[in-house]
Backbone:
């Protein structure tokens, strides 16, 4: 939310930027590659994607139902058959854990 002071009228006007503009300038700068293995029907995967989008984190989404190579890669890396699996700089997070995501991105 930004506040603009009108020169001609002595009142303060509220202005809220559209969500796309906010997210465009709120990108998290990290040199770590982020991969998200998931399914389009998984509610936790959707929540994880929303969190990454809202925080402005660039990531690669890999749909394991559409490409079995992604599923094999996920199982080899994580030893898990459940989604979501998040890979940040070679480290694996199983499930959606905000604190671990933030820790790996900062560290």
Residues:
């Amino acid at each position: 939310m930004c506040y603009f002071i009108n020169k001609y009228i002595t009142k303060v006007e509220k202005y809220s930027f559209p969500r796309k503009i906010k997210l465009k300038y709120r990108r998290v700068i990290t040199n770590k590659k982020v991969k998200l293995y998931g399914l389009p029907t998984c509610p936790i995967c959707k929540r994880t994607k929303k969190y990454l989008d809202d925080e402005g984190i660039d990531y690669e989404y890999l749909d394991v139902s559409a490409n079995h190579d992604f599923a094999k890669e996920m199982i080899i890396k994580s030893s898990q058959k459940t989604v979501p699996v998040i890979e940040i700089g070679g480290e694996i997070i199983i499930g959606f854990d905000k604190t671990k995501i933030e820790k790996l991105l900062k560290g």
Notes: The chain has one domain: 32-106.
